[in-house]
Amino acid sequence: MNGVPEDLIVYEIAVVVPKRNLNEENKGYDCVEVLVNEFRNVGLIVERVLGLSDEFIKLAAPLETLGRVAAKMQMKKTTHIGIDLQFEWEEIKAFVRQPDGSLFSWCERFQCYRHLIYEIVNKKNSDVTLKFDGKEIPWEAGESLLQRLELEGIVKQVFPLHDEIKRKKLLRSWALNWWDFTAQPIDEIYAYFGTKIAVYFAFLGMYTRWMIFPATFGLILQLIDFGSLKLLVFPAFFISIVLWAVLFFQFWKRKNSALSARWHLNFSVSTSEGYKLSGREWNSLQPPLELVKNSGIDKTKEKEALQRYEWFGYLKRFRNDVIIILSIICLQLPFELAYAHLYEVLKSDMVKFGLTVVYLLVIQYFTKIGGKISIRLIKHENNENTEYQADSLVYKVFGLYFMQSYIGVFYHALLHRNFMTLRQVLIQRLILYEVLENLVENSLPYLKYSYKKYRAVRVPLKFMFHSNASLLLRNKKKREKGLTGKIQFATRVEKEYLKPTYSASISEELEDGLFDDFLELALQFGMIMMFACAFPLAFAFSALNNIAEMRTDALKLLAMLRRPVPRAAATIGAWLNIFQFLILMSICTNSALLVWLYDQEGKWKLEPGLAAILVMEHVLLLIKFGFSRFVPEEPAWVRAKRMKNATQAQDMCSKQLLRTISGREKAFGGYIRRKKPAGTNKSQ
Fold first, then answer.
1. Most exposed residue of 276, 282, 433, 524, measured as fewest CB within 10 angstroms of its CB?
2. What are phi and psi of 62, to 5 degrees?
3. pLDDT at 484
4. Who has greater pLDDT, 121 or 296?
């Protein structure tokens, strides 16, 4: 379990309830005692830990318990012949194990835990009255016990626990291992954090390694004065980085496909070329279950209902996108242009600094409002699952950040045509922003944790003062000494409870902290790509920042935050399309910068140099869209493995079908032969 021998107990889930005084006479009716007994009845291993102000119920599950609940959930897993079949505990040897040797991945185990603890229901025909500190709580028939206690505020939180053995191993081999630069134990990250976080770090590592080429090229351009040759060198640099970006994302798709095959993620087995990774290319407008159940009654009405549902879904999404785009154009664009213009015309540095402070405060508030509006709009879309809702949120909110991050740079680049001012803005946005962002990103969780620790110690002491003032006075000096010293907790589970969660800055409902991490990468990529000809050295700064980002993000996840809830998404989702959009934007903006560099007098005549830039722009656009045909998205060994598995699956299904048909024919023939003499005698 979790990468260690599966017979060793590893507590992976914690349930937090308030600390209380329990009388023996009410022990059998106490809701927490009932909850603990129900946990044990479903096969979970329970350990109860008392903290300063709360009680923690730690849960572990033996392999058999997880296996039987996986079979009950009809979970599909990959077999040794490559077919995804419904899991059965009795046929455990037929299913492929994870790279770390465990039967279930962390995502699958977490799903099993949630099913176990939330499917504890009142199986009696009548309501059961539970008690908690003198308060009566009705537990209705068929109602989930954990959900009822969450509604009553008795169960404060349910969260995953860190595995100390794996956590310390990852700290040594990953977070604190600075000598390998971009090397990362991706399989161990996948086993510990799940698919989505592992895919993020795989993308970050590959992105940083590939950035060595443009960083070196940009450093050469910055250090060497090419003089009049810059009119040839800068277009060559521009062409090279566009080709670099296009190739990088094509090879990233190949790596993503290889990782999915290595981790045995779900595949739809087919011999056709229409193979897709499940969860990657599904239609986001799948009909609801009611329409599917009612299908087959009237084919005409069924077709009309499905078409109506499909097109209404597209119209709702189009309506929401139009609302967001018009809001950005009518509200945010004038505000951004006004700030950029004032920053350009003001002479005093102090006034500029004050203007920037006001701008940052207002834009943060504006972004939060935009995120809340986007979430409300998404709830009225026909998205298939949470991952598609998260992708829709990413598209909408990135529009806000795109305008916020780039409109000022566009203003300086295209209107004022001042290279020095443009480079100053880029240095400010890239270096200062990324340094401050990393400081805030890594210091804020520690400050939150320290504040919660302080409150966790203060609250019990305040309760002690009201309950026993004389005892408080007798031990005043001892407690004051303890308060001024280092705060210590007896249990690790309480420390984890006080740590912040890995949550997004815009919405905890649909996104986790990966939104902010991917957003930081996307904004960085757009900045260095769209203005590459103006500041080639930006690639070197970004490469150094990403090397540090890998280790600081790892340290943040392993030491500063709770263990994140795993997400099963096998790709980077909507962010891939955003990166592709930024490549297209970079072709247009760098072409404009080259025209500006070539036509310094502003005559804008169609001379050979300008014509060559326009031709180059169109050629690069064609290359961008045509390169996917030359670099396949799936490695040959993955394709061969898939085809082999599909062929084996067809052979086995064909043989089983022939045996079934043959058995039925024999049974039917024997039945006829047994019936024939009776019929013959009767006719005679």
1. 276
2. -65, 160
3. 39
4. 121
Residues 6+ apart with CB under 8 A from 89: 64, 67, 68, 70, 71
Residue 658 has pLDDT above 70, yes or no: yes
The CA distance from 308 to 162, in Å, is: 47
Contact partners, residue 155, CB within 8 Å, separation at least 6 = 15, 16, 17, 35, 146, 149
Query: Residue 503 is which amino acid?
Result: S
Residue-wise pLDDT tens digits, 458-476: 555 444 444 444 433 444 4
Which of 458, 447, 485, 460 has its CA nearest to residue 51? Answer: 460
Do 505 and 188 meet the contact criterion of CB atoms below 8 Å apart? no
CA angle 475/478/484 to nearest 5° reads: 135
For the chain, how are helix, strand and coil distributed in percent, rounded to 5? Answer: 65, 5, 25
**CB count in 10 Å sphere of residue 258:** 15
Residue 44 has pLDDT above 90, yes or no: yes
Question: What is the reported pLDDT for 279?
Answer: 33
Helix (H) / strand (E) element for 579: namely helix 574-598
| pLDDT for the residue numbered 239 | 86
Helices (H) and strands (E) in the chain, counts: 24, 8
Between vectors from CA 288 to CA 286 and to CA 291, what angle results, nearest 5°? Answer: 110
pLDDT tens per residue, range 618-633: 677 777 777 767 777 7
Write down the domain spans for the chain: 13-161, 173-266+305-465+492-634, 636-672
**Rounded CA gap, 30 and 503, in Å?**
33
Tell me whether strands 157-160 and 84-86 are parallel, antiparallel or unpaired.
Answer: unpaired
SS (H, E, C) 660-676: HHHHHHHHHHHHHHHHH
Q: What is the pTM of this model?
A: 0.81
- Token pair 């940052």 is found at 360
Which amino acid belongs to residue 469? A
pLDDT bucket at 656, cuts 50 / 70 / 90: confident
Determine phi and psi for 157, rounding to 5 degrees: -155, 155
pLDDT number for residue 214: 92
List phi, psi (to 5°) of 56: -120, 125
Length of the chain: 684
Mean pLDDT across the stretch 175-201?
Answer: 89
DSSP for 87-123 reads: --GGGGGGBPPPTTS-SS-HHHHHHHHHHHHHT-B--
Burial classification of residue 270, based on how many CB atoms lie within 10 Å of its CB (0-12 exposed, 13-18 middle, 19 or more buried): middle
Which amino acid type is present at position 233? V
Distance CA 417, CA 409 (A): 11
Rounded CA Rg of the chain? 31
**Tokens, residue 234:** 């800068």
Residue-wise DSSP of 383-429: -SSHHHHHHHHHHHHHHHHHHHHHHHHHIIIIII--HHHHHHHHHII
Beta carbons of 285 and 382 less than 8 angstroms apart? yes
Instruction: Classify 73 as helix, strand or coil.
Output: coil
pLDDT value for 142 = 87
- What are the distances in angstroms from CA 466 to CA 93, 279, 470, 546, 622? 60, 56, 10, 52, 76
232: part of which helix (H) or strand (E)? helix 230-262
- CA–CA distance, 8 with 62 (Å, rounded to integer): 9
In this prediction, residues 491-504 reach a mean pLDDT of 86
Tell me how crowded residue 656 is: count the other CB atoms within 10 A of its CB.
10
Token representation of residue 628: 């996917």
pLDDT at 12: 93
- Average pLDDT over every residue of 303-309: 76
